[in-house]
Specification:
single chain; 127 residues; alpha/beta; Rossmann fold; five-stranded parallel β-sheet; two-stranded parallel ribbon; 7 strands; globular
């Protein structure tokens, strides 16, 4: 397993909405992060198995492998890193399930600006 870059924090974005993924990638890159984008949980798991990341932004509702299944697979495989959920799901049950599966933050996309999401990433990465 390799690190994408030893000097800059690396972030994995797992998001099926191409425009949202690109906007997050551009904003995080501008802030100095090394960013990898995966369009679904299958691609996300592949990236996690091949690289080390400092944090992950994870959508829940995605084709092929969704965010729930991805977090369950991570637990089974012992893959651990800070997870920030970025989803339009906002039910209490969804938030509680995400926390039970290891999410540090649950951000409802429709309630957050890109700057808000980047600020949350910075908090999680810097501790």
């Amino acid at each position: 397993m390799s690190s994408l870059n030893d000097s800059s924090p690396s972030i994995l974005i797992v998001e099926d909405e191409a425009a949202m993924a690109k906007a997050l990638e551009l904003k995080l890159t501008k802030e100095g992060y090394i960013v990898k984008v995966a369009a679904n949980g299958r691609e996300g798991m592949s990236a996690l198995r091949e690289n080390q990341f400092d944090a992950m932004l994870l959508d829940i509702m995605m084709p092929e492998v969704d965010g729930w299944e991805m977090m369950e697979t991570m637990q089974r495989e012992g893959i651990s890193l800070p997870i920030l959920i970025t989803s339009n799901l906002s039910q209490t049950e969804d938030i509680q399930r995400a926390e039970a599966l290891g999410a540090k933050k649950f951000l409802v996309k429709s309630n957050q600006t890109l700057a808000d999401i980047v600020a949350e990433v910075q908090i999680v990465v810097t501790g």
